[in-house]
Amino acid sequence: MTPRPRTAVLVNPASLTGSSAKNAEVALRHLARAGWEATLVSGSDPADALERTRDHLAAGTDVLTVVGGDGLVHLGLQAVAGSGVPLAVVPAGTGNDFARALGIPRRDPAAAARLITEGTRRAVDLARCGDRWFGTVLASGFDALVTRRANALRRPRGGARYTVATFVELARLRPLPFRLRLDDRELTLDATLVAVGNTCYYGSGMKVCPDAVPDDGELAVTVVESAPAVRLMATLPRFYSGSHVSHPKVHTYRARHVELAAPDVFAYADGEFISDLPLTVDCVPGAVSVLVPE
Q: Where does the DAGKc domain lie (predicted)?
């Protein structure tokens, strides 16, 4: 008898209410109908959940399924990067920027669940920062401050949290002295933010690195020079379309290796805290396969 295909379904125990619980149920029902063996994986904290996920991958599983937002996808990437096990994503979070970048349905959990069994494997690059992997964008500067504040807000929900956090941090805006190394090019400048993108979106659909392509072997870097708060506020709506890159204070670059340094500045990636600067980021081509629409 041919063994049934297997998937480990990674869920966040702290989020198993609302859309997370409903979308997990949708995924499990689809897997049962398709004849797959599905095992729920969770943990008491992210480190425990990651260890349990790695144990399931070591025991043999055909797909790692993540039911959640970018934070849980980030956790799943730590397990599957370089393993050869493909990743499936059933979005159930606030931003879902990883799913957005790869065309995975964000508002149709049944369609996303079908990709577990019927999706096309797409080899996707990942960015590596020390021993951490990320799939979307690393934010440092003003945008990292916004992410930290948005993560701390209980209200409002959804993308509106980023809007509220943005206005709060605009009142505290200050120039940040950055030193950058982009492959063999070095830059020193006062900047508002520096974003390093493996994909183009962060902050619930802001197209901060519009030139980022997830399978081209390079990172897209967006630098916003220091500017008054009122000027930055006028530019922010353009981040959603990606047209901000035509502004004279915005510069874009491409590199395989990026080094960032600035005093008292920290970085977030996939909406998760990474570390204080200085840090380095490298593009690792084809580090993971993701199940996406054909």
A: 2-133
Coil, strand or helix at 118: helix
Asked if residue 201 belongs to a domain, the reply is yes
Q: Are 119 and 88 in contact (CB under 8 A)?
A: yes
Burial status of residue 144 (CB atoms within 10 A of its CB: 0-12, 13-18, 19 or more): buried
- Per the structure, the complete domain to which residue 272 belongs is given by 134-286
pLDDT tens for 37-64 read 999 999 889 999 999 999 999 999 999 9
- In CATH, what number is assigned to the domain containing residue 19? 3.40.50.10330
In the predicted model, is pLDDT for residue 178 greater than 70? yes
Cβ–Cβ < 8 Å for 183, 156: no
CATH code, domain with 239: 2.60.200.40
Helices (H), the chain: 18-33, 46-59, 70-80, 97-102, 109-118, 142-152, 160-170, 229-235
CA angle 259/125/47 to nearest 5° reads: 80
Q: How many Å apart are CA 117 and CA 33, to the nearest integer?
A: 11
Q: Name 269's bridge partners.
A: 138, 272
**CB neighbours (10 Å) of residue 69?**
26
